[in-house]
Design goal:
Layout: E1 6-8, H1 12-23, E2 28-30, E3 37-41, H2 45-55, E4 64-66, H3 70-74, H4 81-94, E5 99-104, H5 111-114, E6 119-123, H6 128-137, E7 140-141, H7 156-163, E8 169-171, E9 183-186, E10 193-196, H8 202-209, E11 239-243, E12 258-264, H9 265-271, E13 281-285, H10 290-305, E14 311-315, H11 323-334
Helix pairs in contact: 1-6
Bound molecules: adenosine monophosphate and magnesium ion.
């Protein structure tokens, strides 16, 4: 029988057990405030290779390194004092939190982490369980703990269901608070650029630095600046279609066996007068709050993917604040498989 990962409550003993495994070169799943991560120590190539193997992730897609604090970040990058000061100002406001910096790397960063690039992506996570592990293990590389291209995991059970047969432990830190991956900010180019939108927006970063930040543009995905940002990603097995105002925009949705997701219960009520009886109507949030939509989005997609719907139709929220990241993830999840680039 296949042995599945143990889901551990984050007690003192369990954290000790997980850290021992990490230090021996194992990879384990850990909770972060964004999504669950598949972590390995960065001082040894074996766990780094295992991360790619478990996820079936292409080697051109670099990993994000997670560190405990600003001094640990500084130790891994090769940048001048002016840029370091800017990173410090941003870290002072947004870290620990869902903001990843892309910076010129020091040689100690394995080429496996950076996928052969001269830069490394680093973040200081906020989840107390992840931080306790980091305090004892040192820096950890950690992409999302799911098979490459599939919907990201926002609770321990999602990890168990997808890669539970390939790893020894999952530390259970409850559902992820933010629910979408970190903002990736590239500070290695002349014009600072958001490579992946997240909870921290270009505008929020501009307000701290007082200089122009190139907002996220989807065209970046084709020039491989953020190699993981393929057009098709985060996808359920079930076909996904998106709509703005009314599901009638999607002509195929006439068939019966379709799940329809509205951004809020209120929106769902506007469209259906017998909501309580409908078995195929769902919503991301009660009243359309964007943070709540982000928090619930991947979990609802994972849940509906297990039911045998022929298609999922999802409404998209407005593109402001974290709504930009939500639109980005839903857009990629709905992209056609032929656009996968692999
Ligand atoms: P995740 O799989 O959520 O951990 O995100 C990792 C993503 O970070 C990758 O797919 C890239 O898009 C981005 N990334 C990591 N390292 C770099 C780097 N050195 N330069 C640009 N983007 C990076
Ligand atoms: Mg990922």
């Amino acid at each position: 029988m296949v042995k599945l990962a143990e889901i551990l409550n984050p007690t003192e003993d369990a954290i000790g057990q997980v850290v021992d495994a990490l230090l021996l070169g194992e990879v384990v799943a850990l909770p972060t405030e964004t999504v669950y991560g598949l972590a390995g120590i960065i001082s040894n190539d074996t766990p780094l290779e295992k991360i790619f193997e478990v996820k079936e992730r292409p080697l051109f897609d670099p990993l994000i390194v997670h560190v405990l604090d600003f001094p640990s970040l500084r130790d891994l990058v090769d940048i001048d004092s002016t840029l370091l000061d800017k990173v410090w100002r941003l870290a002072d406001i947004f870290c620990p939190g869902p903001l990843t910096f892309v910076l010129r790397k020091k040689k100690i960063i394995s080429h496996i982490i950076s996928a052969g690039k001269k830069t490394v992506a680093i973040r200081i996570p906020a989840h107390p369980v992840f931080r306790e592990v980091l305090r004892r293990s040192g820096p950890l590389a950690a992409p999302s703990a799911n098979p490459f291209g599939y919907v990201s995991p926002t609770c321990a059970e999602h990890v168990q269901a997808s890669i539970g047969d390939k790893i020894p432990y999952i530390l259970d830190g409850g559902p992820c608070e933010v629910g979408v991956e970190s903002t990736i900010l590239d500070l290695s180019r002349k014009h600072f650029t958001v490579l992946r939108p997240g909870a921290i927006t270009a505008e929020m970063i501009e307000n701290v630095l007082g200089e122009k930040i190139e907002p996220y543009h989807s065209f970046i995905t084709t020039d491989f600046s953020a190699p993981g940002m393929l057009k098709q990603h985060y996808s359920p097995q079930t076909k996904l279609r998106l709509f703005k105002q009314s599901v009638k925009e999607i002509s195929e949705s006439i068939s019966q066996n379709i799940a329809i997701i509205y951004v809020s219960r209120k929106e769902a009520q506007l469209q259906s007068n017998k909501l309580e009886k409908e078995k195929n109507i769902f919503w991301f949030s009660e009243d359309g709050d964007l943070s709540e939509i982000a928090h619930n989005m991947f979990a609802l997609l994972q849940r509906l993917d297990k039911i045998n719907f022929d298609m999922i139709c999802s409404q998209v929220p407005e593109k402001v604040g974290i709504g930009i990241a939500i639109n980005d993830r839903l857009g990629r999840a709905a992209a056609k498989r032929k656009d996968m680039g692999r």
